[in-house]
Amino acid sequence: MKQTNYKTKQKTAILQCVKNMGDKHFTIDALCEILIKNGNAVGRTTVYRMLEKLSEDGILRKFVMPQGESSCYQYVGDHNHCHEHFHLKCEKCGSLIHMDCDEMNSLAEHIKSHHGFSLNPLKTVIYGVCEGCAEK
Amino acid sequence: MKQTNYKTKQKTAILQCVKNMGDKHFTIDALCEILIKNGNAVGRTTVYRMLEKLSEDGILRKFVMPQGESSCYQYVGDHNHCHEHFHLKCEKCGSLIHMDCDEMNSLAEHIKSHHGFSLNPLKTVIYGVCEGCAEK
DNA sequence: TTGCGTGCAAAGGTTTTGCATGGCA
DNA sequence: TGCCATGCAAAACCTTTGCACGCAA
């Protein structure tokens, strides 16, 4: 599942850069800076458009942040081992934690059967306070 | 627990209007329109400032929406019966659904005990597709 | 009188859109 | 050649801030 049509140096630069991120999350800003460092500067608009498409194609996961904060992306690529888990975001330190857990799957089933709602783990972010910050 | 100091007609108008919302969610826009209808037009800035304070005081709950969407508020007032439920937001039609359910409480406990993470139901919004939109 | 409260206008931030140019096929 | 991709600038969006005026106490 590729982009639309043409193959341009911007697309390949972004795609490669995104893959190099591993499973870390990154913002548009961060990505742009890396591209510049690599000598592959790409226009902001293009980066926005690319990441939007990649998200739709399931290659990236997009985390929409509240007003004023920029969105966050994560590479999931072909190895879909990251499809069925949720993310916990600490409100104190901002860290994003992966939670791979059967409990969530049964929750999803419950919500589906009892509330008629198909939840989307890709977009859902659970807010709270992580262990480290709670101790302080 | 009041505001800061003075009592103005704007404050009383907003506070009364907010209470009349019951447990429904509303946006700044919606609130402003109602105020206008009631002949109590209040400046947008003032409404923002008031709702911010009311949220800090625990009288309102604030739901921060992603970029481009305006925040959502809900009256909780003194009767805190709405503290322990979650919200489902449909990605298609945008409707926000209350989910009052024991399942969620046990989930919260699980996350706490197994992942050391104290989740915040006030801020967490679960995304997905609602029953009505799924049928289309 | 004192100083907070109000609200207009402008700024702040991210994201989207218009449109002309340039590059892929 | 034809059309998509790019990227600059400007718009759009919600929210916050500056600042002068007005009203509560």
Protein architecture, described:
- The structure is a homodimer of 136-residue chains.
- Chain A has 136 residues and is an alpha+beta fold.
- Helix content of chain A is 39%, strand content 20%.
- Chain A has helices spanning 9-19, 28-37, 44-56, 102-115, 131-135, and strands at 25-27, 60-63, 72-75, 86-90, 96-99, 118-119, 125-129.
- In chain A, the strands form two sheets. The first copy, chain A, has a three-stranded antiparallel beta sheet. A three-stranded mixed beta sheet of chain A has the order 5-4-7.
- In chain A, a hairpin with a 5-residue loop joins β4 (86-90) and β5.
- Chain A starts with 8 loop residues before the first helix and ends with a helix.
- The A-B interface holds A 64-67, 71, 88, 90-91, 97, 99, 101, 103-104, 107, 110-111, 114-120, 123-131, 134 and B 64-67, 71, 88, 90-91, 97, 99, 101, 103-104, 107, 110-111, 114-120, 123-131, 134.
- β7 (125-129) of chain A pairs antiparallel with β6 (118-119) of chain B.
- The structure holds a DNA duplex (25 and 25 nucleotides).
What are the low-pLDDT stretches of chain A, counting only 5+ consecutive residues below 50?
A: none
Helix-strand string of chain A: HEHHEEEEHEEH
Provide the number of structural domains of chain A: 2
Largest interface: A-B, 33 and 33 residues
Beta-strand portion of chain A reads 15-25%
Percentage of helical residues of chain A? 25-40%
Overall geometry of chain A:
globular
Report the structural category of chain A.
alpha+beta
What is the highest CATH level, the class of the largest domain in chain A? Mainly Alpha
